[in-house]
Specification:
280 residues, mainly alpha, two-stranded antiparallel ribbon, 35% helix
Length: 280
């Protein structure tokens, strides 16, 4: 069964505005003693060039419940609202849709559901950058502290850190890809709205998401342990090429090689699904 990734989940169901809103002030009107010159009307907003379109969602009729004697696997068919709420009133709807994928509410232990769509979009947008604003992440930070092994003169990453991220990898492996994509496409207008609220009036969020996945897929598969340096208080990667990686790529470095390979495999599946939505 195909699985989606943490990024997808975070992406969909993976999905932040930094609280950046556009405020517009009306210009004061002035009475002119001379005839007012006519100004050309404002140019209409340019439509973005869409490379990977997202189709309009189609609500399917629910299947009849199975008979009591039937032996079936529990369905992960998501519950989708018939109409979309406004982005500022979407938390309950997206939480219900995500919750319908699981038998329990364990996903709420890993995610922040308040302003989830805005936080998801903002986080995705910043993953290819050098720094990731942690105050607006839709996912909760792992417990414990970053552990270092080796020596004072030659510090290196510790394999004990991998356990801090194992629950996230297991969680993303448990998401059904088809169900995740149904949630993503259904709520996509709200993801696009959140992206435009960040200031991208002429851009398409799904294209940005594919670009971010491409960036993550370029993460080097560096074997463990990774050599570190400590020029100040915080540790950095001793290899300058690793230190120059994006914030999202560094996240994949931190989870360890074995778990990184699992996530990379899921991200590839997710990218393939996102770039073929118009064919479904």
């Amino acid at each position: 069964m195909n699985r989606t990734s943490l990024v997808i989940f975070i992406l969909l169901v993976s999905i932040g505005a930094f609280g950046l809103a556009n405020y517009f002030k009306d210009k004061p009107t002035q009475e002119l003693s001379q005839p007012q010159q006519l100004t050309p009307p404002p140019k209409p907003l340019k439509k973005p060039i869409v490379h990977y379109p997202v189709p309009e969602p189609v609500l399917e009729q629910p299947s009849p419940p199975p008979k009591q004697n039937d032996s079936v696997v529990k369905s992960q068919e998501p519950q989708l609202p018939e109409s979309l709420p406004s982005i500022h009133e979407s938390d309950q709807s997206i939480q219900s849709s995500l919750g319908s994928l699981f038998e329990n509410n364990n996903f709420t232990k890993l995610l922040f559901m308040d302003n989830f769509i805005q936080k998801f979009v903002a986080t995705i947008d910043n993953l290819p950058e050098k720094r990731l604003p942690r105050a607006h992440l839709p996912i909760k930070a792992p417990g414990g502290k970053f552990l270092v092994s080796g020596t004072v003169e030659a510090p290196q990453t510790s394999s004990r850190n991998n356990k801090r991220y194992s629950s996230y990898v297991i969680f993303l492996e448990s998401i059904d890809l088809n169900s995740a994509m149904k949630i993503y496409t259904h709520f996509y207008p709200l993801f696009q709205t959140a992206y435009e609220q960040l200031g991208y009036q002429h851009a398409y969020f799904n294209d940005r998401l594919v670009y971010v996945l491409d960036n993550l897929l370029e993460t080097p598969n560096t074997p463990d342990p990774i050599q570190l340096a400590q020029p100040a208080v915080l540790f950095t990667y001793a290899d300058p090429q690793l230190e120059r990686l994006s914030s999202g790529q560094k996240v994949l470095l931190r989870i360890g090689q074995e778990q990184r390979q699992k996530v990379i495999t899921i991200l590839k599946q997710y990218r393939k699904a996102l770039t073929n939505l118009q064919l479904k």
